[in-house]
Structure formats: C-alpha cells, structure tokens
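Entry:
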Amino acid sequence: MKLYIKLITLLTISLFISCEDVIDVEVQNAPERLVIEASLDWEKGTTGANQTIKLSTSSTYFAEDQSSPVTNATVKVTNTNTTEEFIFENQNNGDYTITTFNPIIENTYTLEVIYNNEVYTATENLKPVTDITRVEQSTEKGFDDEVLEVVAYFNDPADEDNFYLFRFKEDGDLFYELEDGDDEFINGNEVDWWYEKDEDDNQGEFTAGDRVELEMYGISEAYFNYIRTLIEQSEGVGLFGTTPVALKGNCINQTNADNYAHGYFRLTQVVKTNYTFE
C-alpha cells in the first residue's frame, strides 16, 4: 500500500511539473456484442411463473450509453426433460417476459436467442436450495469482535454437492454484496454464514435499526465457477495480481463462434429474508 501511495504521489508531482505535455493514449475499442441477462430465479413460496430475460448490446468504454436495448430478437427456453417450450414475449424495451414458466428442480433447460440472424444457445440445470432456518446478529463470527454482523443459519443437505450464491444489501445501498460458497468442508452440517460490513463501506458498519436483505441461491457448479471468477475480478487484482480478461459465460453463438455474447444463462432456486439490527 505504501508503494502504491508513493507511485501516485510521484505521478501527481510529475503532472504538475509537465502540465504542458500532451499524451495521446490509444484505447482499443472492443466490438459491439450481445449481452444476455438470463437469470431465471425461482423464489421459494412462489410459482416461479413470472420471468424476465434482458437483452442489450455492449458499447465502447467511453461511450455515453454503455448499453443499448435489443428489441428485434426472439427468445425461447426449452425444458429438455419434458420438451416443453416457453416463448418469451418482446416488450420492445430490451425485456423479454413470460408469465407461464414452469420451473422443475433438477430439470435441464436450454436457452435460444436469435439476433441478427445468429443463434445463441446455453444450457443449465435448475438446482434446489435449502431453507434459512434463522437469522441473528453477532459480534463473534466476523473479523472484528467490536463490529456487528448478520448471521444466516441453514442445514446443508448431506451426501450431495451443493453450491451457493449469497446476496446482501442494506436499505439505502445501491448494489448487493455477493459471496459464493460450496459445501466441500461443511457437507451435511448446520452452517452459519455471516456478513460484516467493513469500515470502507459508504454507510459504515451496521448499527441498531439498520435493515439488511439476505438472499441465498442454490446454483450449479458451472455457475459457481463463473461467479467466483467474477467476484474475484470485481474485488481488484492487487499489485501482483493477474490482469482480468473478458469473462465469457455459457451463451454460445452457434452461427459464428467468434461473435460470442456476454452474460450467463442460469436457473436457481432462492430463499429471501431480511433482518433489522437491534
């Protein structure tokens, strides 16, 4: 960290000294690509019938609009176990929706998107999720024993491989905090999964009266590997880390493999709850 600060200081000084120098930096422009946001999440206690898939196109980094909605595609999801087809209706704003989707645990589904005469496909398995048995607050689970954390408890199913995605968001936050996990060392046990906000957070540490939303998803191993890499890249690579590269999802262009899409087609079951600190 000290080395990083020194580098920033030296750079700042040099900028003031040579303020008349103009440096042209050539920035590579990535090609426009289709972006597929296809997260079909079945919340426990609902039918899961209402689902939305979002399509857009990417743009260059310095563009005023970072994405543009795609309004001329067709979207279909097929249950390969039952051959049942689900046609998503074009809402002419980048959203493609359905109100009759039928989620079945451990069934396999295939997504098909046709855009600009090219066919994109992806396949995923719908995984179940166990229930959150209780939620508490604590100061004993996290890194700092003087800071409040929220703790969710659940029983990991025995004799099977399970992968999890957790999302936490305090009221007022713009984005969720994402965490991933698997049961390699906790298989069949009661698990306490805690979330503690650090001092760098814009809203600071949790205090009495704060309300936080918790979501726990059952995900496939393939999506676990994808989201783990995404989380690691979003947290930064550090001074000696590997430079991130474009992360490809599971959506494959069957017409032109070089023109791949961004995004991921996932199917999950999810449990949601919230907790207010005392």
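The mean pLDDT is 86.
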